[in-house]
Write a structure and sequence with these properties.
Blueprint: H1 2-37, H2 49-59, H3 64-77, H4 81-85, H5 89-96, H6 103-118, H7 127-130, H8 138-149, H9 158-168, H10 177-190, H11 196-209, H12 228-231, E1 248-259, E2 262-267, E3 278-279, E4 282-285, H13 298-304, E5 309-313, E6 317-320, E7 324-334, E8 347-350, H14 361-370
Parallel strand pairs: 1-7
Antiparallel strand pairs: 1-2, 1-4, 2-3, 2-8, 5-7, 6-7
Helix pairs in contact: 1-11, 2-3, 2-8, 5-6, 8-11, 9-11
């Protein structure tokens, strides 16, 4: 039995060595692929943690193709953390307009001001300092720390989840607590400790360009021979994701009230979506509602009285947010008399000045087609 135990122990050690070798080969192949196929993106040509932070915040929930122009806008308008910190929320929101998830923009301003106070305008590059800043979670802190300071912290985003799930055959849902722990642990084992920043960039780029969500390029993939999903015909099944809750439907009716070359607008409050963005007078209903039923809605009468006419009715706009779907229509009113009590919330703005105000993507879509 002693000899068997010794053999068993030797066998176990060989398995461990082989496993470590497989992880090393995976990282090597990913980096090799990256060096040949990576896109030339501006934030990859700098070690400046401030610029890397800008890019990471912009690219949250945003495709590179869309985020690139916003990165250039912010990098040119706010080349230093000092210039960003001295700006106003209104200007930041205006420059952010169209990207959505506006809390990201507000956190940019909040974080820049904290950096000015706490770090004297020098943007931190270490994970421990980064993770304590507003709007910077584990992923963003890991990305900045590895790219700017070469700290060994793995990134785990949607692209990384997909690559790891397919290659290693992991069926744990990526949006479950157990799944996130499993993927994070594996990512820690895989990261190249000699060049963590390059490895993190490589695996994210691999997921973005090679291991696509739909129709991945498996035929010319350098990892396909060892890929569980490819070998077992489960590419379309992995990764597994728990179904999101049903979207809440909301019905918005915007009213354009003009006086010559001016129009009524107001700034939204803090209690709902699109905080501090400008919009036209709004009435929300529990279901889709058309004129003339809408014209006798109590809130419409409260705002505009009963003597108005509808000069214009827009198409139906649909806008999907994380947990809700907005159904919106715009009406231009003639003869509307704004209730004196409501006037405190709204202001007349010259139509030519509307473009300078920060607005939701929904309002921008209507604005671009109407004015």
């Amino acid at each position: 039995m002693r000899g068997f135990n010794e053999d068993s122990g030797g066998f176990t050690r060989k398995v461990e060595i082989f496993y470590d070798f497989c992880l090393m080969v995976f990282a090597h192949e990913i980096i090799q692929w990256y060096e040949k196929n990576k896109r030339d993106l501006p934030w990859r040509n700098t070690k400046n943690p401030y610029l890397i932070w800008l890019s990471e915040v912009i690219l949250q929930q945003t495709r590179v193709a869309q985020g690139l122009s916003y990165f250039h806008t912010f990098a040119e308008a706010y080349p230093t953390v000092q210039s960003l910190a001295s700006s106003t929320e209104e200007q930041i929101l205006r420059d952010w307009q169209g990207l959505g998830y506006y809390s990201r923009a507000r956190n940019l301003l909040k974080t820049s001001r904290i950096v000015m106070e706490r770090y004297h305008g020098i943007f931190p590059s270490r994970y421990k300092e980064l993770i304590a800043l507003p709007g910077i979670g584990e992923y963003t802190a890991s990305a900045i720390a590895s790219f700017a300071a070469n700290e060994v912290f793995p990134v785990v985003d949607g692209n990384v989840f997909r690559v790891l799930a397919r290659y290693f055959g992991i069926s744990e849902p990526i949006n479950s607590l157990k799944g996130k722990k499993k993927f994070t642990a594996l990512a820690r084992e895989l990261i190249d400790v000699e060049q963590p920043g390059t490895y993190n960039q490589a695996i994210m780029e691999f997921g973005a360009l090679q291991c696509l969500p739909r129709n991945p390029a498996c035929g010319n993939c350098p990892l396909h021979l060892g890929c569980f999903a490819y070998q077992h015909k489960q590419v379309e099944r992995l990764p597994v994701k728990l179904k999101r809750r049903v979207l809440r439907n909301r019905y918005f009716h915007y009213f354009v009230v003009r006086e010559d070359d001016r129009v009524w607008v107001r700034k939204r409050g803090k209690a709902d979506i699109w905080q501090h963005l400008y919009e036209f007078p709004l009435v929300e209903t529990e279901m889709e509602m058309e004129m003339p039923v809408l014209s006798v809605h109590p809130t419409v009468i409260q705002y505009f009285g009963k003597s108005f006419t509808v000069a214009y009715r827009s198409k139906l706009y649909k806008h999907v947010l994380t947990h809700q779907r907005i159904h919106a229509r715009f009406y231009e009113l003639k003869g509307a008399i704004l209730n004196e009590h409501e006037k405190k919330d709204w202001n007349y703005v010259f139509i030519k000045e509307l473009d300078k105000l920060a607005k939701s993507k929904l309002i921008v879509s209507f604005y671009d087609s109407y004015f």
